[in-house]
Predict the structure.
Amino acid sequence: MSNVRQISVFVDNKPNQLAGVMKMIKECKINVRALSLADTSDFGIVRMIVNDTDKAVEKLKAASYAVTVTEVVAISIPDTPGQLSRVLDILGNRNVNLEYLYTFLGKSDRSVSFVIRVDDIENASVALNDGGIIQLTENDIAEM
Amino acid sequence: MEKYWNKEIECASRAKMKKLQDERLVAQVKHVYENVKYYRDLMDKKGVKPEDIKGTEDLHKLPFLSKADLREAYPYGLLAKPLSECVRIHSTSGTTGKRVVAFYTQNDVDMWDECCARAITAAGGTEDDVVQVAYGYGLFTGGMGLHGGSHKVGCLTLPMSSGNTERQIQFMQDLEATILCCTPSYAAYIGETIHDMGLSPDDLKLKAGIFGAEPWTEEMRRSIEKSLGIKAFDIYGLTESSGPGVAFECSEQSGMHINEDNFIPEIIDPDTGEVLPEGEVGELVFTSITKEAFPLLRYRTRDLCVLSRKKCSCGRTLIKMAKPMGRSDDMMIIRGVNVFPSQIETVLIEQGYSPNYLIEVDRVNNTDTLDISVEMNPDKFSDKVKDVQKEERALAGAMKDMLGINPKVHLVSPKSIARSEGKAVRVIDRRKLHD
């Protein structure tokens, strides 16, 4: 299966926290392909897909960040009405629970890419495959 | 084989020790009465004359001294020798109010060095050891105290003072330090830094650590012992009575032997001042029976602990004090419940978190709030917000079980809480209760 690794970083809900993480990424000349920030009143979780996961994780850990790597599904669907709904139906029909979802920083005119975090990635991946949804690999992402 | 610095004293029979204490106490009371007006007035007010004190059994007749007295008598009011006979001054950190200054004659310094020499010997130190003193040097007693003890034993002494942690570790490695002396929070930080630098205890020659000057828990001891690959010994003292070395731990690591040839301990009920029998928890009170320049009689330490004369496997007969449960200065009363930072530390280490934390107490709409910031353990971090919140609730639950009240726990980034090179600041109390 073509699962993709997502980096999550724990940050405090204070000024300059995301900036600190991005500085690390910049310093190792890594490109961010998808990014989302979950926030609570206390803390935030920066989630991202980058073009060199190992290097980014190593850099962040060395700087004492709490970092975790999770497997997620990345999909690419046509940029037309009803496409995301179709994806969600495919997952729902197989009883896959969606934790969260965010978009890639895309630049294609005709398609849009999403990161999907689910509770059962095996099941989700098979379901999407059966449904004819294009899943991106880390190689695809590195070449984006 | 247990080694002693002064076997004759450390293993003296009870009868011999009592005789020594009696003689010294009688002479000391006379010395203080004659030379310290402040205390003479207190004795007169209580109707006690030096002749009334014939031995340790009369100790309870003497008036107490408290930190408030020391502040009132600042700076010279409790001085018992002319300044020309004094050779040094030390001072408390002053975190809880006005500073207290203490004076030392050369004999006082020698006595203090002897106490620290006993502590270093009990931790396995001999003239073959290299002692790295990473307590702060200066007005604080930690640095100079262990420094003096280390010299006395004849150890090679590295007077590092605190701070510049990477250089500490470099020296520790290059000069093969075998005994580290510092505050437990700094020891924990050094341990953490060693691992961050990609080193392990195997890269060091350290075998023991002597840590004191702030309360620490058994859990923290085990964590420091593991990270530095050493046996960690507790040491107790206070500037008011000399400094570290008033009591020290032996190989049994179950309480500290009090150098009772110099300091007579009592445990009192903090509310009534009544002396409590051995084994009961109360406030620790010390009477210095050999100090010349700054001899405090019945000084209330505000430390809560227990004394024990149970036979110790190390062979010392010196009375033992349990690790203080907390200085009553450290104790917070939150929503009517007594809370010690050490309890919070215990929970954190049990739950696998770093013992670096910050307690913030405030009062909102007449209700006390307790917020505890805890550094996220990267191994427990999940990408899901609800998992992190669940972890916060689990920690709060464990704290509630320990404290009896519900705190709000905030997970914060690893290493975002300031590390301490000396005494750690763990509590910020914003309640304004006395204005």
